[in-house]
């Protein structure tokens, strides 16, 4: 959400200072991810202190999945920030979509608690794949498939490439629209 609003929120800077505007989106997404990563680490430490067995050996897999999530978020933020400059209602719609995605992603609950007919629908959620893999790695020590990570990385890299090209192509028009 913050990455989507980054260009519009810094309209005065965009109008007066020539610089790569995508830095605003990168800064917003990165700052948010750093804060969330610190919170995530604190929750993991708290779980370990409370006696929950976490598989620290799977931390490398967790970091791979979180890096994929970061790049995916960056790609979405770049694309949506571009659209937000020209259509200001994106922010209103996006907040609703993100709320639905949050509750449709098994973050606070395992997928096994969801009825079977709904599990098939929830598997289409791209966030579920990443966050469920993080849960599986930390709680059960299950390593991810290199093929699965490779396919996801290719898809996310393609999405980032498309979003950056769209952003860079439309960036010269931002001054007139913000």
Structural summary, described in words:
The chain is mainly alpha-helical and 178 residues long. It contains nine helices and no strands. The protein has helices at residues 2-9, 11-16, 22-49, 59-86, 90-103, 116-122, 126-140, 146-170, 174-177. The longest helix is centred in the N-terminal third of the chain and has 28 residues, at 22-49. The protein is elongated, with a radius of gyration of 18 Å. The model has no long low-confidence stretch (mean pLDDT 87).
Write the layout of secondary structure elements.
Blueprint: H1 2-9, H2 11-16, H3 22-49, H4 59-86, H5 90-103, H6 116-122, H7 126-140, H8 146-170, H9 174-177
Helix pairs in contact: 1-3, 1-4, 3-4, 4-7, 4-8
